[in-house]
Description:
Number of strands: 3
Helix content: 55-70%
Region (Disordered): 316-360
Number of helices: 19
Pfam families: RabGAP-TBC
InterPro entries: Rab-GAP-TBC_dom (IPR000195), Rab-GAP_TBC_sf (IPR035969), Rab_GAP_TBC_domain (IPR050302)
Domain Rab-GAP TBC: 20-208
Protein name: TBC1 domain family member 10C
Number of domains: 2
CATH topology of the largest domain: Cyclin A, domain 1
Amino acid sequence: WPSMYWSNPLFQVKLQCRKGIPSSVRARCWPLLCGGQAKMERNPGKYQELCEGPGDPQWVETITKDIHRQFPFHEMFLSPEGPGQQGLLQVMKAYTVYRPQEGYCQAQGPLGALLLMHMLPEQAFWCLVQICEHYLPGYYSPKMEALLLDSEVFVALLRRLCPKACKHLQKHGVDPFLYLPEWFLCLFSRTLPFPIVLRIWDAFLSEGVKVLFRVGLLLIRLALGSSEKLRGCVGVVETLEKLRSIPAHLLQEDAFMAEVHDVPISDRDLERECKAQLVKLRKTRPEFQYNPKHRLPGSKAIFDTHQLEEGHKQLEKASELQGRNKRQTRKKPDTRGKTFHVTGQPAGRREERVDPKGKSSFYLETWF
């Protein structure tokens, strides 16, 4: 059994992503992990078409105002005319044309910017599409119903894994929407040191949204997990400040990620808790429409979905080709014992027959 497990390529990929993807190959690995590369190859020329589209002037104006806020001290985004800001404007505008019903969400800016640091705009666009459609569907929609559901799931998991911190947060009325949107919507890109953010993205693109839950639960445990840490947190402001100012020695890259992967949260736990919280939400909010089934748990599920789509396409092509061949194949006419009128000189046996009216005509009798 261990040898079978270790020989599994998917397990080896997950293990390497947990160790951290080397920076020299991260630009190639991320599009492959999330399915952005396959999506780009299936839609040649689509990105250029979206970029050339007019776009909604309202969204373009909003995006233009937000661009300078994304990693303002990074050399790639210093100049408004530089490749960073212009590329981000292009990617975000293309997404609003691609998904006009969603439009633009400010939290998508850091995602697009971080992707552009590692790859070309077209690749960054398709990776962003995959994150928004398969990893975090519904997160960036106007109602943010998916994030609302996940906040309830997060509190339920926190109550089970870190009851002391959960009790403190509830006692002081610290709603999860005061800290969770910045964590989950931006994939911690505005919260944690950059090397840790890259490691989180490596694991997230491999294993899915459970990585975000693990990181969030670990941060609360590091900040509020003991009575000593809770000392001095007498209200909402102090508690939130505690969450924002985790000591640097607790944020060492390798040690932090090892603790993240030790948090006992599995895909099955998330699925079970999602179902339970979904029932509660629909009782209190009859208008709640989000369906978590559209979320895919990591690169393996995305790869399987891609293979299934390709299989369906192959079947459709085969059935279409078969139907075309049936239409083109003509049945050989049965001419046994029949005669055909010949207007020219016949090539076979010719027999002259006398017409009753005195006229003659040629007939060709054929035998098969």
